[in-house]
Every structure is written in structure tokens, then in C-alpha cells.
User: What shape does this take?
Amino acid sequence: MSMRLRLWVLAAGMLGTATLFVLACVELPVFGGTWHPYGDRAVHAALARRTANTIASVNFDQRALDTLGEESILFGSVLGTVVLLRQTRDEQRLPPEPARVAPPVRRYALIALPVTLLIGLYVVAHGQLSPGGGFQGGVVVATSLHLLYIAIDYRALERIRPVGLYEVADAAGEAGYLLLGAAALLTGAAFLTNFLPYGTFNTLSSGGTVPLLNAAIGVEVAAGIVVLLARFLDQAVEIVSGPDDEAEDGT
Assistant: This one.
């Protein structure tokens, strides 16, 4: 295919996509109006399935397949980072030197660590009831663990952060979401259908599969963020260039 023909195909595709977007926008409700069919249907579906947080119902029930794609993007990013930042044969790993931490920083970081961890777990556990969920709570949980690095030093962080286990947890969170979706197939329903009993409204056990999918996301996000930061910290703190790299840099 010549370059000219490729450009014509690209132009036709872009024009078709733009046309579809324009047609879709024309059919949208007027901004600020009183007619909101999509929002009304989403709220009705959330209430029908005993999920107090409509956003969680959309993410983990009505459009759970979209959330699987978002989770897989993070999983792929973690996998790519692990591959790209792995230690090569010409690199050396040296134990990091302990650094002095100012007493006020140490004190407040150690106080904030358990509080932040508890908040993160709360946000994950109550994702189907209140704002938040696995994505937000997972990031908070991962952040809380790294307060130990700020409060003490890198070696203290390493003791509570065996990277291999977090890599397994990251994969387990991704697999858990897929397996819950596949379990619906055993009941004769579609993939990721909310097939469990909906429970009692506004309780932790409400929402059917919503809290379980939300928990799987929380595990995957928390573990994935820890692994990402671990690989970048390895490069900055532990891994140094080998003799060949130093010779090329002129150092």
C-alpha cells in the first residue's frame, strides 16, 4: 500500500469517527436539563441490586467489563516495568546507606502510617456503600506502606515489602476479577453478570458480586503500586551502573 493510499484510508477513518461522535453528541440530553435517561437508569439498576453507591454499581456491575480493561492496563504497566527495570548482568546491587531522618518527620510519619492504612482498607471495604473503592483505597494502602520509608529508612520498608509476594498478589487480584466473571458463566449468565444474592441494602454484604470485584481491584491496585514503586526505588537506591557503563560515561 502506498503512502498516499494510507493517508486516504486514515482520513476516511478519522472522518467516519468524527461523524459518529457528532451524531452521538446530538442525541445527548441538554446540559442542565431535567431529562437524564442514562443517570436515571443507572440509579434504578443500582438500587435494584442493593448497591448504595451508584458509581460502584456502574464500575463493577453495569459496566464491569470496562473496569476489567482499566485494571488490565495497570497490570500491563506493572508487568512492563518489572521487565524493563530488572537488574541486568552488568549492573551491581549495593546495600543502601542509612539516612538520618528528622525527629518530627519520623514521629508524624509513624503516626500517619497506621491511620492511612486503616483509611485505605476502609475505603476498599466500603466501596459499594460510599465514595471510593478498590482503585482509590488500593492507592492509599500502597502509600501508607511507603510512609515507613519516610519515617525510618529503605531497609525498614524492605522488611514489610517482599516484592515477590506483592507480585503474586498483583496477579491474584487480576485473576480474581477474571474468575469471578467466569463464575457467572457456570450459572448460564453472561461473563461478569452479577449472579450472587444481592443481600441487604446498605450493608457490607450487599451488592452481590460488587464488593468481591471491588476487593479484587483493591488487592491488584495496592500490590501493583507497591511493585511499581519498588522497581523505581531499586534503580534509585540499590542498583548502580557496572564498570562498562561507567567507562562509557567517562566516570
